[in-house]
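Hey, resending since the last one bounced:
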Amino acid sequence: MRHHSHSTGHGADGPHPDVWTGRATNRAQWLAALAGAGCLALGIGLAVDSAWTTEIAPLAMAVVGCIAAGLLVLFGTLAFVHVALRVDQDWLEVRCGHIGVPRRRIPLSHVAGADFAPHVTPRHWGGWGYRWRPERGTAVVVRGGEGIVLRLWDGHTFTVTVDDAEAAVRVIRDRLRPTTPGSAH
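The structure tokens again:
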């Protein structure tokens, strides 16, 4: 696995940039994407090369099953090959995969705090991807490793695996307002 991170602006000791960006990548998911493409190709091959004269129901089920499974695996893995995190003055935005979907935007005014998580693993969340667990909150996990944990004012948490998570936490903490939502600033 190879991880990439990028932030614009100054280093850890200087002022924070107007926009901080970071990302995390999991190249191992390309193998799963290849398996999904293979399943999709098998379904298409069955549909094209079969005689379709006898036993139509089992053949149709095999074709539809292979194509559906291939598309699900292909989309599911390509959507979570990497995650991009963007923090500006007012928002934190998480985009997944090459087309940026799923995407989540969280106003910083909804964030009560941010913590560095040194070891987030897919195993703790039930796998890779966009995850929800009632006892843990919501997470976007594309690989094991460092991440950030946002504590939201509504009591929920949101975890994201991202390289240079400590820098992201510093930027987020510096932009948080010390008051609760709805109170006068």
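The CA atoms of residues 35 and 111 lie 39 Å apart.

Sorry for the duplicate.
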